[in-house]
Amino acid sequence: MQRARCYLLGEQAVVLELEPPVSLQSQQRIWGLTQRLQQHQQVVDVIPGMNNITLLLRDPQQSPLDAIERLQRWWEESETLEIASRLVEIPVIYGNEAGPDLQVVADHAGMTPKQVVELHSGTDYIVYFIGFQPGFPYLGGLDSRLHTPRRAEPRVSVPAGSVGIGGSQTGVYPLATPGGWQLLGQTPVALFNPRQQPPTLLRPGDSVRFVPQKEGVC
């Protein structure tokens, strides 16, 4: 079992944070604990993250050490939860204006842009959690050869639908926003629509496959 540390966050929350590395098994335990605690009378809200989980407790400050010990005990008693997974294919136009950093990633990996596209689209990724933006998927499974540092200077605006790499992760920006990930391409698929139920296309446990489109020039 990975070592974990618990600490208070502000006046209402307690956090459990796992030591690296990130693994699917640990994430499945986080999903299991999330499901278990959602109906707990002492818990107001449960927020799963990547290698961490945050609880909003009704009385965390009544006995801070008790709150920390409680979460630690819940984690030690937790079990993995294998969520029914859907395979979601996301079409992507790679390179050129749609993916202005494709060459940067290729140079960093010592590959051609075409090889980067083949490697990036040749993997089925797992949605570990949704965060940062509504519908933004943090995906596990990026090939280590494609791990690329974020941009030294983030862009003021990243277009909605941009597919990028940030360090050891890849994901898709559902909405236009400032961002520092290296952009490989773009998808026309909407990952967030507040008029739909559920409003997000993806959910934790889903598998994601990027499908290159012929319009992309690598």
Helix content range of the residues, please? 10-25%
Strand order of the largest sheet: 7-6-13-5-12-9-10
Shape: elongated
Low-confidence runs of at least 5 consecutive residues: none
Gyration radius, in Å: 19 Å
Distance between the termini: 43 Å
Sheet bearing the most strands, described?
A: 7 strands, mixed
Q: What is the overall pLDDT average?
A: 89
According to DSSP, the number of beta strands is 13
How large a portion of the residues is in β-strands, by DSSP E?
25-35%
Number of helices: 4
Structural class: alpha+beta
Order of helix and strand elements from N to C terminus: EEHEEHEHHEEEEEEEE
Structure description:
With 218 residues, this protein is of the alpha+beta class. Helices cover 20% and strands 32% of the residues. Strands 7-6-13-5-12-9-10 form a seven-stranded mixed sheet. Strands 1-2-4-3 form a four-stranded antiparallel sheet, covered by helices on one side. A two-stranded antiparallel ribbon has the order 8-11. Helix 3 (102-109) crosses helix 4 (113-121). The mean pLDDT is 89.
Defining key terms:
218 residues; alpha+beta; seven-stranded mixed beta sheet; four-stranded antiparallel beta sheet; 13 strands
